[in-house]
Design brief:
Elements lengths: L10 E2 L5 E2 L2 H13 L2 H8 L3 H15 L4 E3 L5 E3 L1 H32 L1 H5 L3 E6 L3 H11 L5 E6 L2 H9 L5 E7 L6 H6 L7 E15 L20 E4 L4 H12 L13 E2 L2 H9 L5 E5 H6 L3 E15 L6 H10 L2 H8 L4 E2 L6 E2 L1 H4 L14
Parallel strand pairs: 5-6, 5-7, 9-10, 9-11
Antiparallel strand pairs: 1-2, 3-4, 7-12, 8-11, 8-12, 8-13, 8-14
């Protein structure tokens, strides 16, 4: 079976296209986390001398210091070092899902075994950290594999309707029933489709550590000194965010950065962590990943949609077993803001996406 893994590299230009060692970014992150070169060396399992030499070599290449030392051998990243690390994190958050998707397309084109789909289940889904971890865990085994392609919620449901995937993942805020539910119901037929609960998630505003701009609610986003990083149109998070703004009577035009978009929760979080925005809407787990403050706004349900008449097919049946097993629950329990109240349960479309209208439900602790 053919496996395709696409990678990228940084190159310094001019200068012969010198490629930046990926280890440098691991070391910078370790220094940022540990606060010392010795602690960073232990984290990356290198000698102190090796770490110091690596940092010094790339400081000379960049022509700028990456690390500043203090008495007692404490260490911190310089402003340039912080921006460089942020840039790498943003590239990972933005490109990783795209590279994985393209890699899977190449696999299907090159390998008849993969094209036949003997053990690979195609899943189109709104970006989710738990699904990504489940995919990675399955990739290390010999059984079922997930061909996971991250799209917006609406695009994922459209792919299911076109027969381009077996499972479509989307999320929907509890109580936020109109007009958001109508958008999802366009692609889901009560007599044809069934929903399986993945998890509940807490969504809210991600802000810098310490919340220096004193952002406490949506109204603070309209202040002139506050910059937002938004999710892309037709994503489930964008639909929720727009509904929240409408409910609060806030004109999107009053928000600096409303039209600046990223395509994953991690990319939004990385943008805030790098100081390129002051706030972004996303899940608590993404905020925790980058050490950001989090202001909860609502609880949502993440559903996996499939055709009801396909649930007995071997691959899908195996996947449903995984959703109801301990492996997924362990993944969810380790992720901030995730809950298991709906995990592995079945729902009718009309039950999960009712036609009546009500206000968004209050945030529940998970």
């Amino acid at each position: 079976m053919i496996r395709v893994k696409l990678q990228y590299e940084w190159q310094l230009q001019p200068g012969g296209g010198q490629a930046v060692e990926p280890t440098l970014f691991r070391v910078l992150y370790a220094i940022h986390a540990a606060g010392s070169l010795a602690g960073a060396a232990r984290t990356v399992k290198m000698s102190y001398r090796h770490v110091w030499g690596l940092v010094g070599r790339w400081e000379r290449m960049f022509g700028k210091p990456l690390v500043k030392l203090s008495r007692g051998r404490g260490a911190a990243l310089t402003e340039f070092g912080q921006k460089l690390l942020w840039a790498e994190q943003l590239v990972q958050a933005r490109l990783a899902p795209e590279l994985e998707s393209v890699g899977h397309e190449i696999e299907r084109a090159l390998s008849p075994v993969i094209e036949a789909g003997t053990n690979r289940l195609v899943v189109c889904a709104s970006h989710d950290l738990a699904l990504a971890q489940l995919r990675d865990a399955l990739a290390r085994g010999e059984g079922l594999k997930l061909d996971l392609r991250f799209l917006g919620s609406l695009d994922s449901l459209a792919a299911l309707a076109k027969g381009q995937c077996s499972i479509a993942g989307f999320h929907f805020a509890e109580g936020m029933e109109q007009p958001a539910a109508a958008m999802f119901r366009r692609y889901l037929k009560p007599r044809q489709h069934k929903l399986i609960g993945l998890a509940t998630r807490t969504q809210g505003l991600m802000v810098a550590k310490g919340n220096p701009k004193r952002i406490h609610d949506l109204s603070d986003l309209t202040r002139s000194e506050v910059r937002l990083i938004n999710r892309q149109r037709d994503s489930g998070s964008r639909i929720e965010f727009d509904e929240l703004l409408s409910g609060a009577g806030i004109d999107p035009a009053a928000i600096d950065g409303y039209h600046t978009e990223e395509f994953t929760h991690l990319a939004v979080a990385a943008t805030v962590a790098g100081g390129m925005a002051d706030a972004g809407y996303g899940i608590r787990a993404a905020a925790a990943h980058y050490g950001l403050e989090f202001i909860p706004l609502l609880t949502e349900r993440y559903y996996l949609a499939c055709r009801g008449n396909s649930m007995d097919e071997p691959l899908l049946a195996r996947f449903i077993e995984l959703l109801q097993g301990e492996q997924l629950r362990k993944i969810l329990s380790a992720m901030p803001g995730y809950g298991t109240a709906i995990t592995g349960k079945f729902y009718d479309v009309s039950e999960a996406l009712p036609a009546r209208h009500s206000s968004p439900a209050p945030v529940r602790s998970n």
